[in-house]
């Protein structure tokens, strides 16, 4: 079984290095850590008294891993969730913050559990997730993966500038979709034809 640190290292590798894409609402990002996160944490890497793009660029891989372990895994209580969904939920929390939890909470509500869709992991959400993981935890993992993928599709439906993250220039599956499918069983991956039907309305 992977350790949490190994999962964090994989997330950092998946996120890549420094980017400052004007189409990305997160702004300047390095190893998946956004400038907004660094400002919120007061992470002045360069020591010049301000947190700006230079600090994002100067962030090290190890610093990114520690940020994820502390602020995106431990504090949101992801380690208390069923083991089967931890990696996907952790990865999605890095990518989408509290929306990662809201996606799971809405899924649990759709399954009939009484949980608030508030983006916070509390006793109610923990109890529902643990119950939903019995007897087949992989079913909850796969359902969450599908819900993640649908979330990305809906974002791209609403915001054309984000479609490049869901569909490549060549027309295939983009990083968002591949990322969601990485955490689900292969039988739930969209075929090329299914993917093309889903994005056919996009210009």
In terms of topology, how is this protein built?
Elements: H1 4-15, E1 29-30, E2 33-34, H2 35-41, H3 53-58, H4 61-74, H5 83-96, H6 99-110, H7 123-132, H8 137-158, H9 163-166, H10 175-181, H11 192-198
Antiparallel strand pairs: 1-2
Helix pairs in contact: 1-4, 1-5, 5-6, 5-8, 6-8, 8-10
What's the SSE pattern? Answer: HEEHHHHHHHHHH
Rg computed from alpha carbons, rounded to a whole number of angstroms: 17 Å
Q: Structural class of the secondary elements? A: mainly alpha
- Total strands: 2
Major sheet attributes: 2 strands, antiparallel
Distance between the termini: 42 Å
Q: Uncertain regions: pLDDT < 50 for 5+ in a row?
A: none
Helix segment tally: 11
Strand line-up of the largest beta sheet: 1-2
Q: Describe the global form.
A: globular
Relative strand content: under 5%
Overall average pLDDT: 96
Fraction of residues in H or I helices: 55-70%
Characteristics:
11 helices, two-stranded antiparallel ribbon, mainly alpha, 2% strand, 203 residues
Describe this structure in words.
This protein has 203 residues and is mostly helical. The chain has a domain of 75 residues. The protein is 57% helix and 2% strand. The chain contains eleven helices and two strands, in the order αββαααααααααα. Strands 1-2 form a two-stranded antiparallel ribbon. A hairpin with a 2-residue loop joins strand 1 and strand 2. Helix 1 packs parallel to helix 5, helix 5 packs parallel to helix 8 and helix 8 runs antiparallel to helix 10. It is globular. The termini are far apart. The mean pLDDT is 96.
């Amino acid at each position: 079984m992977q350790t949490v640190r190994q999962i964090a290292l994989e997330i950092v590798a998946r996120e890549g290095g420094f980017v400052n894409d004007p189409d990305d609402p997160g702004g300047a990002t390095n190893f998946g850590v956004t400038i907004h996160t660094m400002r919120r944490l007061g992470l002045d890497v360069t020591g010049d008294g301000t947190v700006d793009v230079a600090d994002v660029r100067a962030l090290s891989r190890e610093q990114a891993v520690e940020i994820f372990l502390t602020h995106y895994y431990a504090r949101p209580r992801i380690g208390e969730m069923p083991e089967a969904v931890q990696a996907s939920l952790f990865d999605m929390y890095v990518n989408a913050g509290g929306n990662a939890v809201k996606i799971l909470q809405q899924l649990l509500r759709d399954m009939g559990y009484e949980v608030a869709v508030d983006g916070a992991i509390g006793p109610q959400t923990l109890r529902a997730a643990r119950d939903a993981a019995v007897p087949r935890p992989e079913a909850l993992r796969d359902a969450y993966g599908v819900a993640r993928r649908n979330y990305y599709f809906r974002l791209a439906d609403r915001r054309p500038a984000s479609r490049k993250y869901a569909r490549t220039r060549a027309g295939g599956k983009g990083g968002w979709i591949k990322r969601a499918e990485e955490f689900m069983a292969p039988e739930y991956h969209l075929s090329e034809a299914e993917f093309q039907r889903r994005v056919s309305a996009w210009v």
